[in-house]
């Protein structure tokens, strides 16, 4: 028997881990969206949420390290699968088309490497943008009465200010739209990588994957879109 | 009266594994709708030979969809436009007068071209040699019903056993993966009592050999199932993944 490391590096193992990391990242996105939606809560809810995260201390570092590991592992696997495909078919077809039927070839499944790479580049930008606030003036601080009067970064003001910039708002929206494509194939494919058979259940999972991808990403898209359209003064945003 | 058609062919010519290869074109004027696709190629070759040109090589044997020798990629689809049909069973009635038809060999590093449309599929043989057999002593054949096995299992094993080894799954896969073939060959033995004893070694050895031959990874495109002439389901790949991970974790 191969060692576990060797097994996870085999063609079956690589795909298994793409599925595991992909599911891990999807679960993270659900949590991320739930957190983001607190921006529509009472006036301090978002800052309380971000402040709570930041005050987790060492635990936060552990979580962040885990996320970085999942992202990088997933991206490295995706890229290595894509590179192997070039090696396995050095000379392509003059004409190529799908036969349809049970095939899952689609714009989504054929562009995983593109949507994934955009997500990776976006992620670096996104962390510099909102975690470290590198592209905007200092966000200032607020006193959080509901959290015992502590002083915290006013990230809510930063988010609301940044999304009034059309370039940023629509840049984010475009990336999220691409993420719909990634998940429309990914959320079904991950379970197939873990051993789900083709059949009735699989069809339902594919339908569920489409719905999940659209609902989740519309959730993410709603925030910049709403802030941009209302100039940060919509009735959903409490002052 | 049967329909006669004009078909514009564009086919791959390659003098050997190291030749770069190129397309040639030829227009056939009297293609009968009742001809099979391969019979049309026979006519093409007769005409080429009458013109003192070299015929185009293509693979076939049984011409009745059971041997797995034929495997042309036609207009970008392995075995042509129809599902669950090997190209030897494809008929020209599926085409119309004036159609343009491009014929290419399966393209994969693990299937090097021998000549024109004929490729070397011995990589498949080596995957089988790695574990696609039963080596435990099962005694002389007993009365079939004496071996207890659930109908569902034996049906599934039989379905996987219908793989004819044509390689269309590799040809059509955007990654040139051999997962459907390998999965089918593993599953049909692993599901039966005689094959079950060696299941762990079998799945590990065959997966390793598949990778060694230089096939691509499986991205779950499921295109293989769409082109497979016998309709092997990608469930074969799911079974292979489960068996492989089980074998590794249990360490047997
Ligand atoms: C928010 C982050 C991400 C999520 C939720 C996500 C989710 C997924 C899921 C669920 C799959 C299906 C896994 C499988 O087929 O087993 C997948 C596949 C894939 N992902 Fe991601 N992904 C993310 C980020 C990325 C990034 C940053 C890359 C970078 C290149 C990437 C590249 C790929 C590729 C290439 C595949 C297809 C793998 C294949 O061809 O088999 N993904 N992703
Ligand atoms: S799985 Fe289907 S397409 Fe692949 S080799 Fe077997 S019969 Fe041909
Ligand atoms: S020639 Fe035998 S299957 Fe087509």
Write a structural description.
- The complex is a heterodimer of chains A (239) and B (252).
- Chain A is mainly alpha-helical.
- The model of chain A has no long low-confidence stretch (mean pLDDT 95).
- Chain A starts with a helix and ends in a 9-residue tail after the last helix.
- Chain A has a two-stranded antiparallel sheet with strand order 1-2.
- Chain A contains 9 helices and 2 strands.
- Chain A has one domain (4-86, 110-230): 3 helical TM bundles of succinate and fumarate reductases.
- The relative contact order of chain A is 0.13.
- Chain B has 252 residues and is of the alpha+beta class.
- Chain B folds into 2 domains: 4-114, Beta-grasp domain (Ubiquitin-like (UB roll)); 121-250, Orthogonal Bundle (Fumarate Reductase Iron-sulfur Protein, Chain B, domain 2).
- In chain B, 36% of the residues lie in helices and 14% in strands.
- Chain B is built from 9 helices and 7 strands, in the order ββαβββββαααααααα.
- Chain B has helices at residues 37-50, 122-131, 151-161, 168-172, 179-190, 193-196, 199-212, 223-227, 235-250, and strands at 4-13, 22-32, 73-74, 77-78, 100-104, 113-115, 118-119.
- Chain B has a 5-stranded mixed beta sheet. In chain B, strands 6-7 form a two-stranded antiparallel sheet.
- The radius of gyration of chain B is 20 Å and the shape is elongated.
- Chain B starts with a strand and ends with a helix.
- The relative contact order of chain B is 0.14.
- At the A-B interface, α2, α4 and α8 of A face β4, α7, α8 and α9 of B.
- Bound molecules: protoporphyrin IX containing FE (HEM), iron/sulfur cluster and FE2/S2 (inorganic) cluster (FES).
- Protoporphyrin IX containing FE (HEM) binds at residues 15, 18-19, 22, 25-26, 29, 71, 74-75, 78-79, 81-82, 112-113, 116-117, 119-120, 182, 186-187, 189-190, 193 of chain A.
């Amino acid at each position: 028997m191969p060692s576990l490391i060797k097994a996870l590096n085999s063609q079956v193992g690589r795909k298994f881990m793409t599925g595991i990391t992909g599911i891990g990242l999807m679960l993270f996105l659900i949590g991320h969206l739930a957190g983001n939606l607190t921006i529509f809560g009472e006036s301090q809810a978002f800052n309380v949420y971000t402040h709570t995260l930041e005050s987790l201390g060492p635990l936060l570092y552990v979580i962040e390290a885990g996320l970085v590991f999942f992202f990088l592992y997933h991206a490295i696997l995706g890229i290595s699968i894509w590179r192997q495909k070039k090696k396995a078919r050095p000379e392509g077809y003059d004409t190529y088309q799908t036969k349809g039927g049970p095939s899952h070839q689609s714009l989504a499944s054929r562009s995983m490497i593109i949507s994934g790479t955009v997500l990776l580049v976006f992620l670096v930008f996104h962390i510099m943008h909102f975690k470290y606030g590198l592209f905007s003036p200092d966000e200032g601080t607020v006193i959080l009465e509901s959290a015992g009067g502590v002083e915290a970064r006013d990230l809510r003001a930063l988010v609301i200010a940044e999304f009034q910039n059309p370039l940023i708002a629509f840049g984010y929206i475009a990336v999220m739209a691409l993420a719909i494509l990634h998940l429309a194939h990914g959320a079904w494919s991950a379970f197939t990588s873990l051993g789900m058979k083709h059949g009735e259940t699989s069809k339902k999972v594919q339908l569920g994957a489409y719905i999940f991808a659209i609902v989740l990403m519309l959730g993410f898209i709603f925030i910049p879109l709403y802030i941009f359209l209302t100039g940060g003064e919509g009735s959903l945003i409490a002052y | 009266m049967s329909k006669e058609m004009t078909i514009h062919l564009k086919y791959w010519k390659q003098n050997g594994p190291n030749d770069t290869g190129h397309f040639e074109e030829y227009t056939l004027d009297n293609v009968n709708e009742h001809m099979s696709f391969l019979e049309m190629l026979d006519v093409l070759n007769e005409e080429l030979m009458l013109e003192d040109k070299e015929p185009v090589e293509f693979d076939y044997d049984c011409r009745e969809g059971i041997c797995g020798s034929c495997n042309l990629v036609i207009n970008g689809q392995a075995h042509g436009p129809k599902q669950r049909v090997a190209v030897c069973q494809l008929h020209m009635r599926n085409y119309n007068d004036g159609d343009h038809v491009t014929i290419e060999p399966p393209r994969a590093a693990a299937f090097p071209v021998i000549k024109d449309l004929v490729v070397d599929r011995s990589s498949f043989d080596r995957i089988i040699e790695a574990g696609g057999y039963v080596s435990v002593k099962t005694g002389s054949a007993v009365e079939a019903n004496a071996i207890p096995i659930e109908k569902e299992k034996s049906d599934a094993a039989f379905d996987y056993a219908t793989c004819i080894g044509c390689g269309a799954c590799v040809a059509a896969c955007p990654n040139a993966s051999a997962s459907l073939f390998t999965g089918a060959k593993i599953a049909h033995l692993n599901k039966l009592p005689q094959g079950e004893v060696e299941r762990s070694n079998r799945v590990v050895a065959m997966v390793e050999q598949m990778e060694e031959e230089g096939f691509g990874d499986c991205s779950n495109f499921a295109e293989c199932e769409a082109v497979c002439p016998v309709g092997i389901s990608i469930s074969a790949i799911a079974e292979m993944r489960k068996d492989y991970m089980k074998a590794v974790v249990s360490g047997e």
